[in-house]
Each structure stands twice: as structure tokens, then as C-alpha cells.
Amino acid sequence: MDDQHYHATKVIIISLPIGKDDDSVILRVQKQKVDDVIYRIGRKAPMSRLMLDYCVRVCPVYGTINFCFSFNGKTLSTNSTADDLALVDGDIIDAWTHPMGGWLMSSMNS
């Protein structure tokens, strides 16, 4: 028997609602220091569905972090779809955060 060790990994795929006449695509959302989240989403569904779900799952307190999402270096629009972006199964969407607060928030409250 060889000395190779195999590790099982737990993978959960979040399946968002898919329209009756819509195909789906499997996408991975990744962010530093956070486990990747894998989604099954309709090809015609707006990316806002994936973005909102991701924010709710990852953000400890709603509204305290502003997430941005990109694919191949381009920021995603909430209205764009997998078809618009020519996404295929296994594509990776990058997520990063901008903490809310500081100068912008203090100037808005004045």
C-alpha cells in the first residue's frame, strides 16, 4: 500500500431559484480567508440573486460590509446574467469587501 493520504472535502452547492425555461450554471465565489461558496444559478437570472445570498451568508452583521464582485478582473453589475457574461460551469467569481464607515459614513450622517 502506498503512503498517499486522501482527504475528503465537504462541498455544498447552493441552488438558487431557476426559471422553468432556464438552464443552469455552477459558479464558485471566492474571497480571501473565507471558504468558497458554490452556486447553481439560472443562466438568465440576475447576478443580484447570487450577490445578495453571498452577502447574507458571509457578512456577520447586515449592512456593515459592502461587497464587490468581479469576473476576470471586471466588476459585475447586479443586472448582468451568466449568459451576458458568457459564464460556464466552474467559473470563479471573486468577492472582496469595503468596510462601511469612516469619512463617507460620517459625512452622510452630517
TrEMBL record:
Q: Which residues form the Rad60/SUMO-like domain?
A: 27-95
Domain of life according to the entry? Eukaryota
User: One Pfam annotation, family name?
Assistant: Rad60-SLD
What is the recorded name of this protein?
A: Rad60-SLD domain-containing protein
From which lineage does this chain's organism come? Eukaryota, Viridiplantae, Streptophyta, Embryophyta, Tracheophyta
